[in-house]
Each structure stands twice: as structure tokens, then as C-alpha cells.
Amino acid sequence: MATCVSSIAKRPRISIFPPRGDLLSLYHEYRLAHEAQLTALCQQRSGKFLSISSAEPLERVVFDIMRRRGWIV
What we know:
The chain has about 70 residues and is mostly helical. It is about 55% helix and about 0% strand.
């Protein structure tokens, strides 16, 4: 009686995607680098860049954050 051993069982499991926690960290790293690049580009053209959460109320952004930064008088 012959036994058949699958070669698939012996192969290490390889994934092209990093573990979920690492992927989230990588996303935040790239997002922060992109925001820094946008900030630099805006400053070169005498502009301003503000990154906010979509959960942030518009009133707070306009009347608190932008006013404190002197963007709105």
C-alpha cells in the first residue's frame, strides 16, 4: 500500500500582504508622508494645507481651528 504525501502541506505559507496591523501602520505612514508633501507644496506657493477628520464638525473646523491659525478673521 502506497502513501501519497501532498507537497502543498510541506510548503510554507507565503502572503504578499503584511499582517493587518502592519498594513494599517503602513497606511498611516504613507498618509503622513503625503500630507507633509502637500504641506510643503502649499507653502511653496504661499498656500495653506489642513488635514482634518471627516467626523469633525464643519463649525469647529471653520470657527475654531482655522480661526485660531489666523486663516479666518
